[in-house]
Amino acid sequence: MIVADKKPIEEIIENVKNNKDILILGCNECVTVCEAGGKKEVGVLASALRMYFLNHGHEVRIDEITLQRQCDHEYLEEIRDRIDQYDAVVSLACGVGVQFTAEKYHATPIYPGVNTCFLGVTEARGLWTERCQACGQCILATTGGICPVSRCAKRILNGPCGGSTGGKCEINKEIDCAWQLIIDRLTALDRLDDYETLCPIKDWSTDRAGGPRKVSREDLQL
Amino acid sequence: MRLQYPIGIRVVRVPCTGKVDVLYILHAFEKGADGVYLVGCLEGGCHYNSGNIKARNRVEQARKILDVIGVGGQRVEMYNLSSSDGPLFADYATEMNGRIQEMGPNPIKLARKKQAA
Amino acid sequence: MSVETPSRLEKILAAGHLAVTSECGPPRGSDPEGITKKAEMIKAHVDAINITDNQTSVTRLCSLAACIRLKLMGLEPVLQMVTRDRNRIALQSDILGAASFDINNILCLSGDHQSFGDCPQGQNVHDLDSMQLLQTVSYMRDAGKFLGGDDIQRPPQMFVGAAANPFADPFEIRIPRLAKKIAAGAEFIQTQCIYNLDKFEHWMQLVRDRGLHEKVHILAGLTPLKSAGMARYMKNRVPGMDVPDDIVKRMADTPKEKQADEGVNICVESIERLKEVEGVSGFHVMAIEWEEKVPEIVERTGLYPRPVVE
């Protein structure tokens, strides 16, 4: 899922300090799972902002709405009849949702309330780690299901580099060396011979480098 | 035990401090409470395993927020005691009451009064 | 192995001599003396001089410019090229830049992560990795084409090298990794500096078992220790480094003012021992910021004067 982390309240206050009618808009999916932008976090932020503004003698109305998602037209439409009441929206959705909301309601300032971090997994409550960088050409079949693009700090496709120590990455002892993981996995799958197959030079044009990306499925378009 | 503890403390009973949500704490302050404190079982002795640990985490969360927004993180506190320890309950009440007296009223209360005027 | 390029290093190895290379780090400024002075110190005692490429991600004068400096002095450079800072366009371009000055040796590396250096907030590129860079240089030379398929006017004539670390983790893929580099185009190898001679000889045995010593020239890397403190630092703080306890002890037991000499002694003894190891084609003496010791080390190990080749 998309993993995000709450922005510091001070940063959000800086954006909306002159507004009078603020909507805190949450999202019921990824940011709820990573406890950064769901209904609960919306409530906490709204309460905190109300108290802040009261303290500063500033009269503000702060409303709370949590949509199912902010990346589909249907859900964003649900607020069309009320959006004009607000002079600012703080969206706690990931960067995708913030942008889509802004596209839909382009006369209303939409501010991000979280930092969108990466595509990852919930390793444990309160601990999320990166797994995928959406390179557009998945090579997991050849690497035993472990991605060197997202999990190797140098995205080396024929690794490990000389800095791998005790199964950990040279940049941080807490980070596993992706290539150690791959080798362990290939060994467990009895496919260590595959290690010597050279991974060819990658086509990065389906990655960020190729520009903003698109998937268009004509078989689904009416 | 009929021990004395300060007036002005409103006791809200919950089956476990783990029931207390961060929002309850924040809303209490929003509505004008000068201080909020939780009294839970001793750590390791929670009837529901780790409810009191979660409560402590939430108190910490609330504390950080209250500091940032200028209400004051010291207005919220977590205490642990054995459910039979009457004297300690009274001590904590006195301690917290003393702290809040020193900090003064919740600025939100004053701000609301001003607004209503 | 027959000689393919005008590289002097390749010719010396092909003729069966033990090759000697060393390394210079460019200055953190634009004064060419930062290179020329170091090169002057060692030029008569080595066959080729490696120029590091923003090593440890610390921004320095670029390897290519420093190699050109060496070339203008009439010396033989080895261009170290990391994939961290340049995409495939820049890599191919710099290779041609080097070839235009008839720089005939290249060492293909990934490069240390930028978090170690002076610009930890920068991007890293790694458009290619070190294996793919080996393939690229070989392809440019042998097919005479760019990666994109167009012909190269005057293709590079480079002797292609890679690094190997017999002491890195995991040990079980050290040999497959070497085989992979050879398949990708590596013709010579310079190893990480060696202190654990037993482990290195064990690695060489595995290399010979697979016949890899006949497919690639291996230059054993050595760095003389300056002090017991340096020995401890290398042991504990440098990833992929194996410094046995008895080496640290030997340095520590030596009085402080004699430790540098002892470090050179250890280096000399190591070379003497490794000369006898089948498959070792030469030595890569990395006396970092201590270049003045290189001539002494080369002379004491009987490797001076350097052979002259056509």
Report what the structure shows.
The complex is a heterotrimer of chains A (222), B (117) and C (310). Chain A has 222 residues and is α/β, with parallel strands linked by helices. Chain A contains 7 helices and 9 strands, in the order E-H-E-H-H-E-H-E-H-E-E-E-H-E-E-H. In chain A, the strands form 3 sheets. Chain A has a 4-stranded parallel beta sheet, with helices on both faces. In chain A, strands 1-6-7 form a 3-stranded antiparallel beta sheet. The longest helix of chain A is centred in the first third of the chain and has 17 residues, at 39-55. The two termini of chain A are 28 Å apart. In chain A, 37% of the residues are buried. Chain B is mainly alpha-helical and 117 residues long. In chain B, strands 1-2 form a two-stranded parallel ribbon. The longest helix of chain B is centred in the middle third of the chain and has 18 residues, at 51-68. Chain B is globular. The model of chain B has no long low-confidence stretch (mean pLDDT 93). By secondary structure, chain C is an alpha/beta fold. Chain C contains 11 helices and 8 strands. In chain C, helix 8 packs antiparallel against helix 9 and helix 9 runs antiparallel to helix 10 (259-275). Chains in contact: A-B, A-C.
Question: Concise description?
Answer:
The complex is a heterotrimer of chains A (222), B (117) and C (310). Chain A is of the alpha/beta class.
Structural class given helices, strands, pairing of chain C?
A: alpha/beta
- Termini distance of chain C? 17 Å
Largest sheet of chain C: 8 strands, parallel, barrel
Task: Please report which band the strand proportion of chain C falls in: under 5%, 5-15%, 15-25%, 25-35%, 35-45% or over 45%.
Answer: 5-15%
Whole-number average pLDDT of chain B?
93
Helix content of chain C: 25-40%
Order of helices and strands of chain B: HEHEHH
Radius of gyration of chain C: 19 Å
Query: What are the secondary-structure elements of chain C, in order, as H or E?
Result: HEHEHEHEHEHEHEHHHEH
- Helix segment tally of chain B: 4
Regions with little confidence, pLDDT below 50 for 5+ residues of chain B = none
Number-wise, the strands of chain C total 8
Note the quaternary state here: heterotrimer
